[in-house]
Amino acid sequence: MKLTLKYYGPAILWALFILIICAIPFGDVGSSSLFFPGFDKLVHCGLFFVLSVLYCYGSIRKWQTRSIRIEIAMKNTIVLVSYGAFIEMLQRYIFTWRSGDWNDLLADSIGACMGIFAVLITSNAINYENN
């Protein structure tokens, strides 16, 4: 177990950062004139994009491959979307000062899929270049 977690260290730290950010009450910050209406969704998408890249990096290191296999990418997608759903459930039922939103979960899922797709494309391009 400890050996497995060492590969996912950066992803675990980023996931904890996401959890903390999603638990903090922001009050009226979202209604500030500094932010546009979809800014919250863009933040969710970006946070999960980074999380998925770090998680895929851990998977590549764990399985000692040069690219991510499709079955690992599917597993990673399920784990990341489940984590997004977990955070939204926490916001809905535990962090009552925040609101769990289906649109936030959709933004989390899109960010996770974008990150996994980016890793697939990048790793395949690097492997193609090296061959």
UniProtKB/TrEMBL annotation:
**InterPro entries cross-referenced by the UniProt entry:** VanZ-like
The entry's keywords: Membrane, Transmembrane, Transmembrane helix
Q: Which residue ranges does UniProt annotate as crossing the membrane?
A: 7-26, 41-60, 72-94, 106-126
Q: Which residues form the VanZ-like domain?
A: 39-121
Tell me the protein's name.
VanZ family protein
